[in-house]
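Hello,

Following up on my earlier ticket. Below are the two sequence lines again, exactly as submitted.
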Amino acid sequence: MNLDALLQGTDIWRGGRLSAAVKAVPSGFTGLDELLPGGGWPQGALTEIMMSCQGIGALRLLMPALARLSQGDRWICWVAPPHIPYAPALVNAGIDLSRILLVHPRAQQDGLWAVEQSLRSGNCAAVLAWPTLDDKVVLRRLQLAAEAGDALGVLFRPRHFVQRPSAAALRIQLDPGIDGGLSVSILKRRGGWAAGPVYLDTSLHTHGSLALHSRTTTATGSFRSQRQ
Amino acid sequence: MLLCNEAAQGYGICPGMSVTAARALARDLIIQPRNHKAEQAALQSLAAWSYQFSSQVSLYPPGALILEVQGSLVLFGGRIALLRTLRAGLAELGYQVQLAGAPTPLAALSLARCQREHMVEEQHQLAAALAPLPISVLDWEPTLLERMDGMGVRRLGDVLGLPRDGLARRLGQHSLLYLDRMLGRHPDPQTLYRPPTQFKHRLQLPSAVEHAQVLLFALQKLVLELCGWLQGLGAGVQTFDIALWHRQGRHTAVPIAIHKEGRDAEQFTILLRERLERLELPEAVIAVELRAGQIVELEAQSLNLFEKTDVRCEVDLLDRLRARLGDQAVQGISAVAEHRPEYACCYSAPGHSRKDSNGQQRPLWLLAVPRQLNTRNGRPHLQGELKLQAGCERIESGWWDEQDVARDYFVAINASGSCYWIYRELAGERHWYLHGVFE
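Thanks for your patience. The regenerated structure is below:
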């Protein structure tokens, strides 16, 4: 059997080709979208964002996608955020505040319950959470809930969880890049190998204020045509 | 013994038996004294619940209700469907009932009393249907019934077979009128039940309950009664209050709120369950009470409570989160035109946000309480020295409400690349504080 015949087989999966059939929300960063199946954050799935430290721009990375999702009629749900999501900055990032839902559970178990309910309900376009629990069964449940509710589930996690198994469809690792930018490595994605790092310009002087919005519109053509 | 359950019947105990005789058959028999007040309350709440099936409900204490259903048959899909719905609903409420139907109230009552699930459709069939019933089904004086028994008149057929003038002489005009009403020869206007304009039902528990989850079973009954009452009024509620009564008049209040007025028993029960699962009872509960909030008229819905079982129950996400986590745990957020950073952002009702922003550079995270920073050689430190970026924003305002601030804000980055929003006080000790994170 020669190589060509072998590659014709449907059971052979070839690296380097990303499935375009995946539903995704453009991240607003061209360099990143090129690496992501479907060209953006996976919708109806769980994404894990691993960070080495705070304050390097993990939320900024999500802002263009959240701004886009906030134009719809579903919630963007924040479950137990570590600080107050600062409304003036969200407005600056182009987010419609009336779609923001903040959930402050008292106990960790309630937090996971709220994440699962929000993901599964179908009422949320995106659900953001900062779980400290390391339980692959829980992650599996959340992944299934995100699929059921067609939600973009994003878990922000400390770097040391990188080695742990996870059912999330996408896992990325963030490190501070040069000049206030961000270095993004893809640890796991559907239908592809690990990739990156890719350097994104998320620096404050381009993304800190209203500039974020205008930058986004030039980054993705389809978004621009919708917004104008 | 007035009544006994199936387990007691298994021991050979039956109504009419003396307590001593019953005790002899089953030593562990639990005997409850008859409670007329509770019976009345139960009949009242059943009447309120029945009002959804007919606007003409009359009470026949101690244990009967009459519903005029001719006008409701079309709405509820015919006689058989209505009976099925009634039976299912009553079973769900935990009642054992005898249903019977007839063209006149007294005939229906007599049939139900002798435990015949009999449906008589036409008036001319009445006499034949009633004939085999014992005369004890009649609401007549016991002495009169005894006298009739002495005359060998034991069944309604015997009574109806007697000549009218003889009947009038022996039993009195009153009894004759009763028979005429029963057979439909004479009109029988009813005293109609009017549903109360407020709903407040209380249920005494058979024993003290320690666990909130066990209470759900009892509360479910009250929820079903509430929804039946609302259905009858063509109304819905947005809030209802549960009171869990402890001994010595103490109670635990459990308010329930729904985002949109409704009367869906299943939705109410799910919210109630979420709330009860989180509840820690200070002491055992001996009674539960449900009080409806402000009622709101809803559009006429032909959709019946029990017919919608095939529709998946949609409980709103916000209601569900609030029920389990509490109202304060679910918030929206607003941006307010205000110089002081801590006041430029506030919680608001989800879906209703103010969006005032002047476009100045702000961090995505704000600390609820500014955190004082360590300094070395007068420079602020946070996991390494913080390098101040060019540009300082001076914020001074608020003197009028004594919450004045006077600060110089900076964007600062440490060696690991973490970017913070920090300020230095312009007065006093001139300390450095961390106020936000450019995440």
